[in-house]
Amino acid sequence: MLQHTDTDRQSLQSPLTLRELLTPVFFFGRAALLAFIIPVVLALVAASFAKPVYVAQSRLLILLGSDYVFNGDASGAGQGMSFDRAQIVHAETEILGSKDIRVRALQAIGVDRVYPNAHWTGQGLDEATERLDKDLKIENVPQSNVIELTLKNGNPAVAKALLDKIVELYIERRREVFGRADAQALAPERADLEARLGKSEAALAAFANAHSIGDYNQELQAVQTQQAQLQNEMETVDQQLATASARSAALAGRVHNTQATVELMTDNGRSQQTEDLTKQLLDLQNRRREAAAKYQDGYPLVAELDRQIATLQSNLAAAPQAQVTLTRKGVNPVYQTLDTEMAIAQSDSAGLASGRKRIEQSLQTVNARLAELMNIGPQYRDLSRDVSTIETALQDVTKRAEDASVEASLDRSHANVRVIQAAEVQAHGHSGRLPLLAAGVVLGLAAAIATIVVLYALSEVMVSPYEVETKLKLPTIVATPRGRGGGRRKDGPLKAEYLSDSDAYFIVRLLASLSKKEGGVVELIAAVDGEGVTTLAIDLALLVAARTELKVLILDIEPRAGDEASARMVQRGGHLHQVSPGGQVLRLANTRAYVSRPISADALKCLESARAHYDLVIIDAPSLESSYTGVAIARRADLVLAVVEAERTRAAVANNLIDRIAASGAEVTGVILNKRRFHIPRMIYSKL
Known about the structure:
single chain; 688 residues; alpha/beta; four-stranded antiparallel beta sheet; 22 helices; 16% strand
């Protein structure tokens, strides 16, 4: 019998073809169609309620001015720094998109006028501002200094007025942002900041020298990192020490409970009592023959010898046939292994304990330094914060003084912005119905695909040979279509219902390659009743008997009432007659096909007898659901084929049958997928 591992079975799987990919699509077609229709219908409903939206558009030109140029000194003679085009446009965009401008624009035009039919749940102005943020779009025209503003609204006049107001408020806000300060007014503030900065820096330097600190934050981080590493090492060592100690204790217990020696071999011989009784029996039988030659039957001596012979025969039947003659013992390898592992675990525990002490000492030193740093931290941070704050303020004051002294008399905040296109509104509004419908179709397709994928993943039944091989890890030997026809021809002879000539030929060839005994035995078995095992057995017997010279027998084991193989053949128009009067085998008229009467006991004995008298024995086994006999007899078959019905048999049930047969010592060679339906239309299927 061939033996297959899971890896071998996987290698026998058929390749994934376009037909296999499309089969789930058509099998779950109704559910997928429903999943597609629902989003499309919702999109149609949404499109029917969509109202036209008008878009107002305006464009601004941003010029490079002194607002974005910073000189190195107060006179402007030193090297200055300026923003690039992208930075300037981004800054202007941020000013345009500020919440303050949107709020003031809504207040100027009127919230109820901008959104007349809105129903606000809380603060109406805040919610209107958030909605305006979605309706207002601010973009930079690529490769230019132009900013484009677009605003959507249901009223074209409101859209134009609101966008113009936003641009007006932006120009005012920009003037406030880039306003200048008086240089002379900043001089006293600058002198005061310089004096405070000198005192703060001196105090910080003295504190750092007193506590041996270079950079407090770096040293604190380094000490914390070292502490975390030591703590992690401590936890790791503790875990390893606990593991080693527990392992040592467990091994010590197992060593204590394990025998040092074990019994290696036991020799058995024939019982001495049996030998003695056998010799006595032979002696009495010889004496009986001598007495019978001298005396007549019934003579007291002859009767006594018969009684003694009967007694010895009874004692011989009750005597043990074998006894232990020799027992050998040796060192227990398990005990040696446990003792060695216990010594290793004890050594590991000692080493880990020593390492833990070193880590604990280092951790104490680090904790002391960390405690010192934490104590002086607030004072150090206060000093550092004073220095940083004063430096920042001094830099800002110095910069503002320099800018003010150079450009005090100039006001260029407005000169850098040009309105190159005032707000204009499209003549026709856009309802967005086509995008809604397109989104509905795309979502419907996605939902249909997701439905197919989910249903396929959750499906437990098998539809195609590829699914059988994927879920059962066994090759599909034959796939019989549903509704092939068959039964009785018009002229009378019986023909196959599901199997074809090529199917039967392939099964016979497969049996010939596997069988190692005289005669071949094929077992057809299913997990549940109604899978078509009896019909397939009859089909196989009819085809083989008609196309070959083989003598074929269907062994009908424990059939359900009314579902006997012989009764099914008669129902299909066959004529059966007994091979011998009172015999258990019936013959189909004008064929070499035979069928047994229902067998409910001694199935193995009947199988061995059938193997000797028939070229091919087909076992019509009962399903696992109704009897375990089919599994028990499987190890006597040369070829075991599991029958599953397409779209009915669950993979878990079929795998349970295969596992049960494997546990009995047999092996399922392949699967017959019965009553398969082709869900792909024939015209499409033939072209794939």
